Amino acid sequence: MTCGWHMMLGYDLVGTYIWQANRSFELARRSRECVVNLPTERLLDTVVRIGNCSSAEADKFERFGLTAVPARDVQAPMIGECHASFECRLHETRITADYPLFVWRVLRVHAASSPRDPRTVHYRGEGRFMVAGKEVSRRRLFRPDMLEQ
Ligand SMILES: Cc1cc2nc3c(=O)[nH]c(=O)nc-3n(C[C@H](O)[C@H](O)[C@H](O)COP(=O)(O)O)c2cc1C
Fold first, then answer.
1. What are the pLDDT digits (tens) for 43-77?
2. What is the reported pLDDT for 93?
3. From CA 92, how far away is CA 104, in angstroms rounded?
4. CATH superfamily of 6-147
5. Range 129-145 average pLDDT
6. 122 Cβ closer than 6 Å to some ligand 1 atom
7. Which ligand 1 atom sits nearest the alpha carbon of residue 24?
8. What average pLDDT does this structure show over 84-103?
9. CA 122 to each of CA 40, 63, 76, 130, 146: distance values in angstroms, whole numbers, following the listed order
């Protein structure tokens, strides 16, 4: 599934908001595992198409010509065409009982070494995205201990 609503919740914790109507909700709840894949701009059309259909209709790897790469610590496959993949296990279930918010612990990270600054895509709603662009630094304004994290 495509997931625009996600957030960091700690150094190795990630939250994803997965609506109950999605098949992914049941898959995540039952398996208590997932892989979070990080796409870049060249995959954007596919990202949108993936998010506009359900795996209840067809296998999305086949339909969109994506490569399912076996993960190491979880059963869910990684997407070979993505810049990075995070193998995750469900960490917190109390919140998920009340809200479709899944809190995942990242077990393993796979990230391509290049490009150094991937053009990742960020969903803004209403069918619009921002693409990661130029980097700016404000290191000189930071307390040194704030840079250690
Ligand atoms: C750009 C975009 C962002 C989306 N973000 C979310 C999201 O944060 N949470 C969610 O539950 N569904 C989101 N969706 C919808 C799901 O991706 C879609 O319903 C899902 O792919 C259904 O597949 P499934 O039934 O196989 O789980 C998004 C769709 C698009 C196109």
1. 999 999 999 999 999 999 999 999 999 999 999 99
2. 83
3. 7
4. Electron Transport, Fmn-binding Protein; Chain A (2.30.110.10)
5. 96
6. no
7. 27
8. 94
9. 9, 23, 23, 5, 26
- % of the chain at pLDDT higher than 70: 99
| DSSP string of 20-36, one letter each residue | TTSHHHHHHHHH-EEEE
User: What pTM value is reported for the model?
Assistant: 0.95
User: How far is 1 from 50, CA to CA, in rounded Å?
Assistant: 6
CA dist., res. 48 & res. 44, Å (int): 6
Kindly list the domain boundaries of the chain, sorted by start residue: 6-147
C-alpha 10/C-alpha 79 separation (Å) is 24
> Tokens in use for 142?
């930071």
24 ligand 1 Cβ < 6 A: yes
3 lines ligand 1 (CB under 6 A): yes
What would the mean pLDDT of 116-140 be, rounded to a whole number? 96
Tell me the C-alpha distance between 77 and 60, whole Å: 12
